[in-house]
Amino acid sequence: MLVQERSLLIGQVTAMSGVPIRTIRYYETLGLLQSSSRTEGGFRQFSPDVLTRLSFIKRAQKLGLSLEEIKEILDVYDRGNLPCGEVKEKLEDKLRQIDRQIQQLMTLQAELKGLLSGWESVPVPQPGTICPIVQRDRDDRVDIGRSSDYT
What is the pLDDT of residues 79-122, one digit of tens each? Predict the structure, then answer.
C-alpha cells in the first residue's frame, strides 16, 4: 500500500513536469516511460522516477537527440549501466552533423549573396524562364561579375 501512495497519476506527472498527458502516453508507447500499474479505474500510475526520465528526455531533445537515440540511451540505463559513453558518442555525432550543416549553410549564403549581387544586371528574360537570376547555373555566375563570391 505504501508503494501506491508514492505512485503518481498521469495528471500529477503532467502537473509536475509540464509535459502534456498526450506526450507522456506517446513516450510510453515508444518504451521511453513505463507506468508502474493502473488504478482500478484504469488510470496509469508512475513511480516518482518518471520525473527524472522526463527531464532527461526533454534535455536530450533540446541537445538535438532523436527519441530513438534517447531510447537507446535509456535502454542502457535500464540494464543497470551508466550510459554516459553512449551519450558522448551521440553528442559527438550530433556535433559533426551540425558542422556539416553550418558548412552547407555557408555555401548557400555565399550563393545567395552572389545571386543578389547581380540583381541590378538582370538579363532580358528568355522564353520558358521564370526568373533568370534563380535559374542561372553556377557556371553562369561569371556573367554576373561576382564569381569570387562562390569560392
Answer: 999 999 999 999 999 999 999 999 999 999 999 998 888 677 66
- Contact between 51 and 61 under an 8 Å Cβ cutoff? The reply is no
Distances (CA, A) of 38 to 41, 45, 50, 56: 8, 5, 15, 24
CA geometry: angle 76, 80, 82, nearest 5 deg = 60
| Cα 96 to Cα 93: distance, rounded to the nearest angstrom | 5
pLDDT tens string 29-72: 999 999 888 888 888 899 999 999 999 999 999 999 999 999 99
**Can you spell out the DSSP letters for 41-90?**
T--EEE-TTHHHHHHHHHHHHHTT--HHHHHHHHHHHHTT--THHHHHHH
Distance CA 20, CA 11 (A): 9
pTM greater than the 0.90 cutoff: no
